[in-house]
Amino acid sequence: MATTTIETSEEKSLNFIETRVKEDLAAGKNGGRLQTRFPPEPNGYLHIGHAKAIAIDFGIAKKFGGKCFLRMDDTNPQKEDTEYVEAIKHDIEWLGFKWDNLVYASDYFQELWDFAEWCIMNDKAYVDEQSSEDIAKQKGTPTEPGTNSPYRDRPAEESLRLFREMNTGNVEPGKMILRAKIDMTSPNMHFRDPIMYRVLNMEHWRTGNKWNAYPMYDFTHGQSDYLEGVTHSICTLEFVPHHELYDLFVTWMKEYKGETEEIEDNRPRQFEFNKLNLNYTLMSKRNLLILTKEGVVSGWDDPRMPTICGIRRRGYSPEGVLNFIDKIGYTTFDALNDIKLMEAAIREDLNKRAIRVSAVVNPVKLIIDNYPEGQVEELTAINNPEIRDAEGNTVTEGNTHVIEFSRELWIERDDFMEDGGKKFLRLGPGKEVRLKNAYIIKCDEDPAKCIEKDAEGNIVCIHATYDADSKSGMPGADRKIKGKTLHWLSCDHSVKAEVRNYECLWTCENPRDAIKQYEKENDVRGIEAMRPYLNPNSLTINKDAYIEKFATELPALTYLQFQRIGYFNIDPDSTPEALVFNKTVSLNAPKF
Prior knowledge:
By secondary structure, the protein is of the alpha/beta class.
């Protein structure tokens, strides 16, 4: 009789990397240990794609009781800076993760140098003095084998002497490199004597002038994993072709250390997953740097940027970002994800945490003619109706604030129409609506009695009357009307605000491919290839909005919902005297 295996809900929810890690732990690989690492290069700010790597590297360690190291891959002093190091640390913490140890690739420079010398003396490496052009020609193609360098068989002692000379500062960059001696006929192009060291003659921001020759990424990456005790090396799919080279260098390192027993059970295990690609988004740090340097955006944290600091400033929540990453999952094939999926995840999360406030972004004055002049009522507004108790009722204690109501109000200009017809359910001649948390109001049937216009015919003021017995929460307040409920602000109890509205920075769905094609066809590079695809309307600024005074008490980056408009947050530039708000996402998904 056949047996049936019933998977638990936890097992069903595991992605393919988590499943493999669980199997390795059960099999006792690496002594039953689990240690991952997140190894960014500090040459720019992290973007949303890095958030996916952070989530899996730190998330797996947390899920299975392991450790995760943060390692700065600082092997290229030409582009690296402490500013980026601090930004990376802040971004990881903002996403809700904490590293078990902070390390740097430069911590291993001496160990890597000694290992490289061992490789030379064990016929595994040699110094090549050819030009980069000659080396490229000898590499061959994926279908044609390469040819050996004329320096490949030089005596080990000579290569060792030249290798040490590479670090003196007397060798011009590009004149000498150290190459691994593997196989120039291998079908794996990465095996065709890859570069291990190159000369830069540059001061390093951590090690100073000690080094003039620096290790390459492929030579550093696996060895750093090994030296740290990493058990699972998790990378994106572009590193699949590097897989074999990674394993070979680790095997050499184990030989160098004399640790050849049980070599397969005690090595870092590699897993590759798909990158996070979004349509209408460009995520290369190199291209993002161009946008900042050319002034297309205000900086790395411009809310139009896909950087983690940019989406933080725009008002994305870390929980929403991680929920989005969890929903799209981890696979072994690349795909272009719809940015609307990310916006939906953000919208869903902000609904649970954003404070509701009244803001009028396109104001027109409303005067309630029969409301007593000088009278002000303090009404109670719920901060977030999604905060509920065990019975499902909205919590009010500590979840309210006061909003003032008076005779003269601001309402949205779009909420009034002089001749809106029967289907227009907002305010107009003869129509009545409810003002949120307040009263039912009605305009006179005669437009001349309820509309004031300027000399150009623009509406400057609307007049209405209120039903004093219709106050929300009082008997009679449940009177049914056809009109909608409108938000409003007291003119004397609201403040001017600047509202920044953001759209996609790019007009094409796949800007990376479009820019590459434009470069090829027009022989231009950088910003000139980007300009045709930049959205000139990616940022619009409204300085005529109003918001309730309550918002002046809230700190920067507070999540807000402008009622009936969308989700916003308070920009770091904002002050109580000059409020600035960034639009995060619309209240509902846009319809097309």
